[in-house]
Design brief:
alpha+beta, Jelly Rolls, 3-stranded antiparallel β-sheet, 3 helices
């Protein structure tokens, strides 16, 4: 399945496809275990919306999803094999349940380890809640001019968008089923580019 473009404005879009061959049962088991063993997994609070955990495990299911995501995205963006070998990426899990009572617009351009901005973000939906009302469960995009477009993902959907595009996950208070996503951001690097002076490592 090819990416479908959803235009927000004439110059701002996001893109949707579906990965139907992913074993989400095994994937969710591994993602939950990643959350369990990662000591930096967040706890939902007034400062955190939902539960988040950076990927630290490389299980078969996680590696399979990661490979399929980047292969599909890089082909769509017309990156060649040399580009694929020189990129920065970061991936994490986001879980939202009916007890999650707030959310906010944000972007994913910043990395605490990379000296340049992230270019692209993606979200893969391993599990979606049911019994949703109105805007519940949707992902909402907003341009800097305030134009908004929402989309209700299905299980297996992969959404690609510019990392500087404001977005937020709407709440899902009406369902006992969690929303579980595998999200990430990446940027292509260049050997010839100056990324700034070296900082002290400690």
């Amino acid at each position: 399945m090819k990416f479908k473009e959803i235009k927000i404005t004439d110059v701002v879009s996001f893109y949707i496809t579906n990965l139907p061959t992913i074993n989400n049962f095994e994937l969710i088991k591994d993602l939950k275990f990643n959350m369990k063993v990662n000591k930096k997994t967040s706890v939902e609070s007034v400062k955190e919306h939902g539960i988040q955990s950076y990927i630290i495990l490389k299980t078969k299911a996680i590696k399979n999803l990661n490979t399929k995501i980047y292969k599909k995205i890089f082909k769509f963006l017309n990156y060649n094999t040399n580009d694929i070998n020189l990129y920065f990426s970061t991936e994490w899990i986001y879980v939202s349940n009916k007890n999650n009572n707030w959310t906010r617009f944000h972007t994913h351009t910043f990395s605490d380890t990379l000296k340049t901005d992230i270019d692209w973000s993606f979200v893969y939906y391993a599990q979606m809640p049911d019994n949703l009302n109105e805007q519940e469960g949707k992902i909402l995009f907003r341009t800097n001019e305030g134009i908004e477009v929402s989309y209700l993902p299905q299980v297996g959907d992969l959404i690609l968008f510019p990392a500087n595009l404001l977005h937020k996950p709407e709440l899902n208070r009406s369902s006992d089923i969690e929303r579980i996503v595998y999200a990430g951001g990446f940027t292509i690097l260049d050997y010839t580019k100056d990324y700034g002076s070296k900082k002290n490592i400690y």
